Amino acid sequence: MANNLGLSIDRSSPVPLYHQVVQGIEAAIHSGALEPGSRLDNEIDLAAQLNLSRPTMRKAMDELVRSGLLVRKRGVGTQVVSSQVRRPLELSSLYDDLTNNGKKPTTEVLSFSHIDADDATLAALQLPAKSKVYHFTRLRKVGGKPLALMENWVRDDIADMDEAMLGAEGLYSILRRGGVNFRLATQRIGAMTANDYQASMLDTAAGSALVTMERTAVDDTGRRVETGHHVYRADSYSFEMTLVQR
């Protein structure tokens, strides 16, 4: 039996009934048949359409909510959440990660300058007094949707860069072309709520949840190459990591 989403249940299959529902809804979301924001019928109606018990349907919906594909909203019902960019927690750039995953990111350079480094930047990059750095902010989009607001400071004795270059490719690509071999980075991930400026740039509401990242990257000669503060829409972005017991 199938419902209006095309879900079907094979009672002769060894796959548990609730998991068949999970697989069917996952497939509908990934194929685009269920778009972000789509509302699903309530569990009683879905159970009736598929000739399943309500506990079986609830178990399936609970699993989809836990996995981040669905969200329950009071007064609205169950909805498909916006698809997230899931980024592995490793030393790579957002631009490269998106491109390697088949995405087509675009970058709008909001500001660009070549300035005397302030005390905080001198300390972060371990530069001598009166050093200059490139300072710029960028808005990264995927599919036309704002994803990240990024501010970076880069030492200026490695590679020349300008606004056009930063708009056309990722920062790490430019630095690698200048001879940088990235070795390690210190990184802090956190959360905050969007202020008015961040909300306007990221096309979200003020007070919405944002993921934050602060990173300082080091090359294989021990130079601190760049430091940055980035914020990401929490409904569209997450980090993935593998934890190993030692």
Automatic annotation (TrEMBL):
SMART domains: HTH_GNTR, UTRA. Keywords: DNA-binding, Transcription, Transcription regulation. It comes from Arthrobacter liuii. Residues 15-83 form the HTH gntR-type domain. It holds the Pfam family UTRA. This is Transcriptional regulator. InterPro entries: Bact_HTH_transcr_reg (IPR050679), Chorismate_lyase_/UTRA_dom_sf (IPR028978), Tscrpt_reg_HTH_GntR (IPR000524), UTRA (IPR011663), WH-like_DNA-bd_sf (IPR036388), WH_DNA-bd_sf (IPR036390). The keyword Membrane does not apply.
